[in-house]
Amino acid sequence: TVTPFLETGLIYDFTDEINNDKTAFNIGGGVRLSNTLTGLNAALEGSYLAGRSDYTQYTIGGTVTYGFALRGQDGRAMGIVTPFFTSNLNEYGNQRMRTGLRFNTGRLTSELALSHMMSLANDDDNHNSDTSAIEITMSLPL
Question: Of 42, 83, 107, 130, which sits with the fewest C-beta atoms within 10 Å of its C-beta?
Fold first, then answer.
């Protein structure tokens, strides 16, 4: 299934009195691909922040995932494991890459991921601001 989408959001700064640009809009869109037979899911997204007088912001992002069911020795489904890879790029050339495994069982979702941010915005400062992290998250919607 191929699903194109558009999105927009209103941003209102309650504390920005300097530039007279309290209101901005996040405008974006992209396309999502899903194949329930193979477990493949992918997305390509982009967004632009409009309405700020002192800067512009845009992002491009992509995600690829592939899920498969984990089964116990009795054949009963235990949950779905989804390896994933995401990459985001901002207007300064900074890129964040993230890869790992997501495990869903019922409403509980957990992730084990490796994240790396390559920062090109501060290259003139002669110091390396690249950062890497191992991330463990668990979430349960209310």
Answer: 107
Q: How many residues does the chain have?
A: 142
Q: One-letter amino acid identity for 64?
A: V
CA angle 136, 9, 12 (to 5 degrees): 100
DSSP 16: -
Q: Which amino acid is at 60?
A: I
Task: List strand residue ranges (DSSP E) for 36-130, in order.
Answer: 40-50, 57-66, 68-71, 77-90, 95-105, 108-118
**Residues 6 or more apart from 100 whose CB is under 8 A from it?**
83, 84, 111, 112, 113, 114, 135
H and E: helices and strands count for the chain = 0, 9
Render pLDDT for 126-136 as a digit per residue (tens, 0 to 9): 555 788 899 99
Q: Is residue 107's pLDDT more than 80?
A: yes
Q: What is the Cβ-side half-sphere exposure of residue 100, based on CA atoms within 13 angstroms?
A: 16
Give Cβ neighbours of residue 41 (< 8 Å, ≥ 6 apart). Answer: 32, 33, 34, 35, 63, 64, 65, 66, 67, 82
- Do residues 2 and 27 lie in contact, with contact meaning Cβ atoms separated by under 8 Å? no
